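Box 3.1 A note on notation
Throughout this textbook, protein chains are presented in two layers. The first layer is the amino acid sequence; the second is a token string describing backbone geometry. Keep the layers aligned when reading.
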Amino acid sequence: MINFAQVGNDLYTGKRSVAFIKRQKTWYAMSAVLIALALVGIFARGLNFGIEFSGGSEFRVSGVNNTQNYEQRAQQAATKAGISGNVESTVIGQSTVRVQTESASERTEAAKESLSSAFGVAPTAVSASLIGPSWGESVSKQAIQGLIVFLILVTIVMALYFRTWKMAVAGLVALLHDLVVTVGIYALFGFEITPSSMIGFLTILGYSLYDTVVVFDKVRENTADAFRTKRMSYSAAANLAVNQTLVRSINTTVVALLPIAAVLVVGFTLLGPGTLLDLSLALFIGIAVGAYSSIFIATPLLVDLRRGEKAVVELEKYVAKHGDRQNARASELEGAPVPMRVGADVTGAAAVPADHTGAAGLEVRPVHKYAQPGPRNQPKRPPKSKR
């Protein structure tokens, strides 16, 4: 059985390591495939915008006892009422059918009567609403404006906080990666985009940025120490940072996805389409993609952006030249057996751990490697008498 606590500790200390930076081309290739599929879905298949963006009429038939063949029955009822074009119908909850058509302001009453007859309910059980496209256009415009302002502020804050614009660029690329892939998944699977989905898209950007900033903060700490001690290269220090934050990123993502998954299950099985389902679907996809980008895209891209800097190149050369010698010296100081002195005289010595005992039960103390053998306090020889 895998001891996840031990694995996390080994990743943090560097005893185990996943080569995130060394395999960056693999991660880039995977992301390129995802983005290509997303763009195919967006431009070839197109986005399925909800009625809030395209405008039209919406009818809700409540108290339906039998929802079998509801799509065919809804289409026939709309045609009977003189409504042409595409008719989309879905089941909401257990006994409500939602029917969306093109704008039918002049045929609303006829459509209500036709739908009540088709589903065997009273005319009063059918509600109708007319939605114009202007509201959806206003929401889209404000969402795009908010996205632009958000990206500008993120760039400024990250550049000031991390004191390098390259971290800001890497973070922005990860954000755009998450946004394109999420929208592409919506296009490929034909998920309906509603104003709630737009809110979800903006929300996942904040989550993705939060996860990336946590990783970058550890990268900055490790790389600063690498420049100071010159014991590892920039890429090695960045790779260690990703490994140290890996368990945290996974745990945070799983904890965030579990309640959203519960809402999705309830939404698909009981509630049906609605604001809650639209928002949770966008969050579920975006959080999963955001966790991927913060681990596999942001930090490898940052290392590639800084790989040509003079300080990074000099550090790489120094570590390549002196790394083996430093590692051997570190092993000698940290892992080699420590010489011990056995004796009963420990007056003035610091407290000795319980396991530092000799074979006869006497206390032992580490001895400096340059210490001279023999007792510490030799009696002074009397001065020679002068003749």
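The chain has two domains: 14-49+135-314, 56-131. The first strand starts at residue 48 and ends at 49.
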